[in-house]
Design a protein that fits this description.
Strand order of the largest sheet: 1-8-3-6
Order of helices and strands: HEEEEEEEEHH
Number of strands: 8
Largest sheet: 4 strands, antiparallel
Strand content: 25-35%
CATH superfamily: Jelly Rolls
CATH architecture: Sandwich
Helix content: 25-40%
Number of helices: 3
Shape: globular
Length: about 140
Amino acid sequence: MAIESYYLRNYSCFQDLTDAQLDEIAQLCEAECFYPGQTLFVDGEPGTHLYLLAKGEIEVLFAIGEEDLVLVDRLDAGKVIGCDVLVPPFTYRSIARSLGEIEVLIIDAAKFRALMQEDCRLGLSVQQQIIQILLDQIVDLQLGS
């Protein structure tokens, strides 16, 4: 299912991009639904997709040791999930699981990285926005928000 590029403006990581750049990213997107308790990705898996949460809520967990999972965050609509796919070695470093029915936009990570290299202004803008998102999440975690 094709995604309309204007819909990507709902995500802060794309706020400074042109309509043409959003059109290119939209071509890499697909919409998908997950049911309660479904796992989007697992720590250590190759990072194949960047997820944009359109509807619902997910939990982000870290594996501590062999058995223990620690909840580190809950994210709702408008959030970017799986940013690990943009940084070598391009593997997920957490676990993301749906808390209810969710809708996500899925971006092919390899094609997105190639687009970011091809269009350096797009790449720089997205990287700066994602770094800001991650820094905000770290502050929230430190403050217990």
